[in-house]
Amino acid sequence: MVEKEVIAEVPGFFGTLTPYIIIAVLILAAYAMSFYREEKEEHSSLWKALAVAIPTCLGIAAVIEVLAFKFVGTDAIWWCDGDRYGFWMGVLLILPLFLFVVLQFLSLKAYNRFLFSRENDIRHICIKPAAWALILVVPVFFIIFCICLAYGWKDDKAVMAMLGIPAVMLIIGLAISFYKNIKLFGLSAGLVMSAFCVVYVLGDIAAVGFCAIAIWKLIVQVLTGIGGVFLCVLGASKMGLFDGMDKQAKKEWDKYYKDPRNQIHY
Q: From start to end of the chain, where are the E strands?
């Protein structure tokens, strides 16, 4: 019954558990494959196949996450929604979401160790410049927009600043990652690796967003419950429901007395 109700509210592919199971399987498979090691100078055909399979799995998982965010937005986390299943069930269901978000982050590090596993090999996939550019582009745009709004700047220069500065920052970040990866892997492999990094970062952003939304909904539930209890107590106090209790307590206390030696008697 739950599955049918959910499908009615979140239509299509993302209204079922199928995409989320696929994401979990792909991330687990990529992470597991990353532990394969070879000591030989010349890599085997298996190693070469895994070198392609690992980013393919992570890339497909990231694409599904981005599509889920695009088509159903925050409803993509219906399966761990505390509003739908209750607070404690929501806490229980959010644990696998958090686990796979962490595992998704660790998968790229594991893949990097897979590629450069030889001793004293300090090479690594260049993803940080592109990642920071993609993460900060929206906040930078919003900050510039707020500054322009606060100072009343509405001319073409303000619009150019709002659009141009984030765009330049994004281009620089992507260019650095593309350049370093091409230098490390060669033109074709470097372009493919850089494209994978962009997709992977977008998937990570979507996954962290889902996790943050799920946690925020649980926090709202807690705050709502606390607020409800506070209002009930405040209302009871205003209605004088505690007055009788106070009078009864005072009446009982009056039955006790202290002697000169500070001993209490009934």
A: 257-258, 264-265
